[in-house]
Design brief:
heterodimer, A: 171 residues, alpha+beta, Alpha-Beta Plaits, four-stranded antiparallel β-sheet, B: 185 residues, Peptide Deformylase, 2 helices, globular
Chain lengths: 171, 185
């Protein structure tokens, strides 16, 4: 059993996902986790699939998809063990006037505190820059100190930042 | 049931400011509901809301005024259950809120993005009517409740961006243009 990481990036058009998924299905590759979105109008998809085919076979089979307007990469990846996150998950929200370095500065602050970003979306809308990051913090994290440090850097960057606990409602 | 809202003067249409304007992130000041300047501001908010397509609410910070005043009118919206018609409130606050539900919100001040936001679906809001200064309590639900929370948030310098439920809950606003051969004005 091999796990393959596939990325597809390029000009959006109807049918890309259908075509890619059909190829994987024909080769008996089970599509596991995937994420697809449009980034400033560009089609962008990343997925992990598992089966018996190797990277070269799948890359060759996906060539018709490329069609001059898409970049496709396929590579074998080891199976990663999945551990439930320790500690708590927070949502960091940032918005303000766009400028260079917002993600770099704030992500550094999070990393210095031992926080692990598990999901990130940024959007540039006119001059408005918005960043949303889900961050796992170890139980030992000084959350107040991290919030204070984020506030300090946000003031320097002239952006608004909030960090709030993501509550899971167990039903 | 509609509010017994005093008749406001004629309003002027004001320019709506957009994020990242810092004024949208500043908490508005409590204001005097009988002050003629505040009454005119309320009338201007209503006039601006009325001329803005699809707009069901507008708060003073959205027209660049740091004040706790807003208007809401969801009476023509399909998601509305209870409606009080045109609501104009000064110094409003949430008294009770229950039954959270997620919905996708947009905002005139963030014209190109929408986001999923959890809001109470049943609320009681207290506020002062402009001109008379009368204190009223409004208990409502569904879309009117969501609109009131969105506008009270604006008065406190909070945008829907600050309440989006997750990293993948922010979306580019989708505008569907009519096909080129479609008839229309």
């Amino acid at each position: 059993m091999t796990s393959l990481a596939i990325t597809v990036v390029g000009h959006d058009r109807p049918g890309i996902i259908a075509q890619a998924a059909e190829v994987l299905s024909q080769y008996g590759m089970n599509l596991e986790d995937s994420s697809m979105t449009l980034l400033r109008g560009h089609f962008a998809m990343t997925l992990i699939c598992a089966g018996e085919a190797n990277a070269a076979q799948i890359e060759a089979a996906l060539q018709p998809l490329v069609n001059g307007s898409l970049d496709v990469t396929v590579r074998e990846v080891p199976q990663e063990p999945q551990f439930p996150p320790l500690g708590s998950t927070y949502l960091v929200t940032v918005h303000g006037a766009d400028r260079l370095g917002i993600v770099a500065r704030l992500a550094s602050v999070i990393a210095e505190a031992g926080g692990n970003i598990t999901d990130l979306t940024t959007r540039l809308s006119g001059t408005l820059y918005v960043l949303l990051a889900e961050v796992d913090l170890p139980g030992s994290t000084d959350v107040e100190a991290l919030q204070a440090r984020l506030a300090e850097v946000s003031t320097e960057l002239a952006v608004e930042t909030s960090m709030r606990l993501i509550e899971n409602d167990q039903l | 049931m509609n509010l017994s809202l005093p008749t406001l003067p004629d309003g002027r249409v004001l320019e709506v400011i957009h994020a990242p304007n810092h004024l949208l992130s500043v908490s508005g000041l409590p204001v005097d509901p009988v002050d003629p300047v505040v009454v005119q501001l309320c009338a201007d908010l209503v006039a601006t809301m009325r001329v803005s397509p699809g707009c069901v609410g507008l708060a003073a910070p959205q027209v660049g005024v740091s004040a706790q005043a807003f208007c809401v009118d969801v009476s023509a919206h399909p998601k509305t259950r209870t409606t009080h018609g045109l609501i104009v409130l000064v110094n409003a606050e949430m008294v009770e809120a229950s039954r959270n539900d997620k919905g996708r919100e947009g905002c005139m001040s963030i014209p190109d993005l929408t986001g999923d936001v959890k809001r109470a679906t049943k609320v009681t809001v207290a506020g002062l009517l402009p001109l008379s200064g009368e204190r009223v309590l409004i208990t409502t639900d569904a879309f009117e409740a969501r609109a009131l929370q969105h506008e009270i948030d604006h008065c406190g310098g909070t945008l829907f961006l600050d309440r989006v439920v997750g990293a993948h809950a922010l979306y580019p606003r989708k505008v569907y243009l009519a096909p080129p051969n479609a008839a229309g004005s």
